Amino acid sequence: MIALSWDIWHEMVAHSMVELPNEACGLLVGHLDGRVVAFHPCKNAAESSKLYTLDPRDHLRIDRAADDAGLAVIGVVHSHTHTDAYPSPTDVNQAPDPDWHYVIVSLRHPDPAVRSYRIIDGVASEEAITVTSDPS
Amino acid sequence: MPVSVRLPTIMRTHAGGNSEVTAEGSTVGEVVEDLIRQFPGIAANLRSPEGGIHKFVNLYVNDEDIRYLDKLDTKVGAGDQIAILPAVAGGAA
Prior knowledge:
The structure holds two protein chains of two kinds. Chain A is α/β, with parallel strands linked by helices. Chain A contains three helices and nine strands; from the N terminus they run E-H-E-E-E-H-E-H-E-E-E-E.
């Protein structure tokens, strides 16, 4: 389960829209139990509508700041511009950490869809997203 | 010469839960070898089957990606910090 505020939900969707026509990406910082404290938009170094490569410098900077704040990077967000919010084979094969939450924002339809997954040993399983006023 | 190495969460379980450890070496490659000697469990996430660094792993010396320095031959010394992070990538393709 992942818990986040409406503000963070809107930030993820807004960043996905701003980055069109390319895929957007960013990191989720929060507590290890799945409570998200912040969404950090990152540069998609691949600059592609079908792929993302999270800028390693953004990753390092956000990881350090999270550590200093007693938090952790607990997941990654990326958009699918023309497909559903389901992990692609690329997403599954390249999932870097089984403890992370993998959030996908789909812009395929007029209403954005936001879904979250765990990806463990090459298997993606959807998990609930709890949107609250203040999960932290 | 001991160098500080910052580990990603996925490797910490193989290093006693520590986020930062020290390892010996005068190049990034030597430090990586010493790291694997100390914590063999991290090898699977760090090393490619061919023996180099796994392509889904990024290494930095003082915030500089070693791909833009001298890769594994990048010199390190006292006070330098190596950071290891997973490459984060994917997409609809």
